[in-house]
Write a structure and sequence with these properties.
The protein has helices at about 15-30, 85-95, 115-135, 190-195, 215-220, 240-250, 265-275, 295-305, and strands at about 40, 65-70, 75-80, 80, 100-110, 135-145, 155-165, 180-185, 230, 250-255, 290, 315-320, 325-330, 335. The chain is an alpha+beta fold. Helix 3 links the parallel strand 5 (about 100-110) and strand 6.
């Protein structure tokens, strides 16, 4: 571990993993095995005599999930969203891919002196709108103002609590050989859109972030929950980071078909010009899931029947235990190893 924090430590790739495992988690007394989902389950304690907490009633049998996330995206507005919408969707999606129905969010603001009141109101309205679309609400928060030059306009931190639906039993550790890996839509849309929204990247194309709340799609999959092993949204580090997290946690090799990987032509061309890999670019409205082999066809059909999943496709399979990693089967019959992202291709995309 380096002596100083670098921008790479915020990438969601290997540098972030190193920072978490060597510094953050040990300092906080958290086991790395406690963080395999995007939202942590909350255990409601019982009294010493085995009864429920006084007044809790049936709530003591509920399974809750909690998550928190910070948003420092630059620029604050981009095609398809802004920092307010992103802050809502990011936390909602962390709950959703953990099998939890979003209930309540908190919102903490760090505002730079001189920031536009009208813009702040607009971003907060969009945040509220996204939260309300999933039947949740913002119930608490905090506001701090720093002097001009001490922040970059606006930073938002949101936390969320959700109710875990009992049928979801999600973990990368339950993956089996032959399980099918799917994505609900095209890859890299958000990362490409944010970068091309910056003045220093005058790139032409039809770029639009996929930023949206995933709970409606996850709720649509609920009747088939028993056949879904694991879910995640490919934010920082993109699909490549998610696949490596799955492979390492499951101790299995994943095989991905290059021909099946969905990406818009503008995103592919943009990446080719700049030497980027769209598999490393973030999405903010894409669902990655692993389905049991005997349920995969039905699950894929149900994904495609929802407006947010009509571009869903199966992209690969889970292999035998041992030698964890990710292999891409190329268009020409060969194969290559997909490397885990090391640093930040695109800083401050969420």
């Amino acid at each position: 571990m380096e002596d100083k924090i670098t921008i790479a430590h915020g990438s969601g790739g290997r540098a972030t993993k190193e920072l978490l495992q060597e510094v953050v988690l040990p300092a906080l007394g958290v086991s790395k095995n406690d963080s395999e989902l995007d939202a942590a389950p909350i255990t409601i304690p019982s009294l010493e005599n085995g009864t429920s907490p006084r007044g809790a009633g049936d709530a003591a049998n509920a399974r809750l999930a909690f998550t928190t996330d910070g948003f420092v995206v630059q620029p604050l507005e981009f095609a398809g969203g802004n920092i307010g919408k992103l802050a809502a969707c990011g936390t909602i999606n962390d709950l959703a891919v953990s099998g939890a129905k979003p209930l309540s969010l908190t919102c903490s603001l760090i505002i730079e002196e001189g920031f536009s009141v009208a813009k702040l109101h607009h971003y907060l309205q969009d945040l509220r709108r996204e939260v309300e679309t999933v039947g949740a609400s913002v119930i608490a928060g905090d506001t701090k103002v720093v002097r001009q030059g001490e922040a970059d306009g606006l930073y938002i931190t949101t936390s969320g609590v959700g109710l875990i639906c009992q049928e979801w039993q999600l973990s990368p550790r339950v993956l089996d050989e032959g399980d099918v890996i799917m994505v609900s839509g095209t890859l890299g849309d958000h990362g490409a859109t944010v970068l091309t929204s910056r003045d220093s990247w005058p790139v032409k194309g039809q770029f639009r972030s996929d930023c949206k709340a995933l709970w409606p799609l996850v709720e649509h999959l609920y009747p088939l929950a028993a056949g879904i092993r694991f879910m995640r949204d490919p934010t920082r580090g993109g699909l490549a980071a998610v696949l490596h997290e799955i492979a390492e946690a499951a101790d299995r090799r994943l095989s991905i078909k290059e021909s099946a990987l969905p990406a818009k032509e503008d995103v592919r061309s943009f990446c080719e010009i700049l030497g980027l890999d769209f598999l490393h670019l973030a999405g903010e409205g894409c669902l990655v899931l692993v389905a049991a082999a005997d349920s995969a066809e039905e699950i894929l059909a149900r994904l495609k029947s929802h407006p947010d999943g009509h571009d869903a496709v199966a992209i690969g399979k889970v292999g035998a235990p041992g030698k964890p990693g990710v292999v891409i089967e190329s268009l020409f019959g060969g194969s290559r190893t997909l490397e885990s992202p090391l640093g930040e291709q695109l800083p401050r995309i969420c």
